Amino acid sequence: MNLRLMLAATASAALMSASAHAATNIYYQSFTGGLNANESVSGTFGVTNGQVGHVGGYRKYDYSFYELSLDLTDVLSAELLFDYDIQSEARYDGFNVVASTNGEFDGPTGLLTPISLGFYSPLSTPLPKLGNVAASGEKKGTAVFDLSQFAGKTVDLRFQFQADYFADGRGVLLDNVIVNGELAPGAAVPEPDAWALMILGFGAAGSILRRRRGAFA
């Protein structure tokens, strides 16, 4: 079989495989290449070492966030996952996630409650932007949120941190922001040509790796 036919067959198989699964990857960000056009940061948040969050710790009265705009108009259901590493003053400084469908954020309004238990805990003193609950203290893991309430819409997510008058900790670092979902019938999926280009790219990358291994050997 020549290369063209082989690619066409492989692309067709990949396309059928993708259609057979209900869950589709809608968005993925590893921050290794910086921010995309639908992302922004504010305050002391920035991108560092393939993560987004505090660069060099945080200060008192800090309010910082990473914001992500998602187009879920062709989606029936969606789920958000991200890795987090938090080190802050327990019960006084914290982090949570809020959502908006009109581009406006008003304090803790629109707070998203995670599926994963134990992520949020009560704060000793409510913070103006965060409200009464947040991820606080020292925590590390993966958080999961259900975004199905925003199916058929465009939603802005704000991953926000706030501190009170006393600063103590490294702050928040986030990585591997993933959104998976079920596409509506007739929603766009990668065309066979796109699959073929992806496969060609994987093949080229494999050839380079093999050459490098040979050189090292």
Please, could you describe this protein's structure?
It is a single chain. The chain is of the alpha+beta class and 217 residues long. The protein has one domain (22-186): Galactose-binding lectin (Jelly Rolls). It contains two helices and twelve strands. Strand 8 and strand 9 (131-134) form a beta hairpin. It is globular and about 55 Å long. The two termini are 32 Å apart. Residues 3-21, 190-202 and 204-217 have low confidence and may be disordered.
Structural class: alpha+beta
pLDDT < 50 stretches = 3-21, 190-202, 204-217
Estimate the helix proportion, in percent.
10-25%
Let me know the number of strands: 12
Order of helices and strands: HEEEEEEEEEEEEH
**Average of pLDDT:** 84
The largest β sheet comes out as:
6 strands, antiparallel
Query: How much is the radius of gyration in Å?
Result: 21 Å
Straight-line N-to-C gap = 32 Å
Annotated CATH homologous superfamily? Galactose-binding lectin
* SS summary, helix count: 2
Under CATH, the topology is which?
Jelly Rolls
Q: How many domains make up the 3D coordinates?
A: 1
**What is the correct CATH architecture?**
Sandwich
CATH class: Mainly Beta
Q: What is the overall silhouette?
A: globular
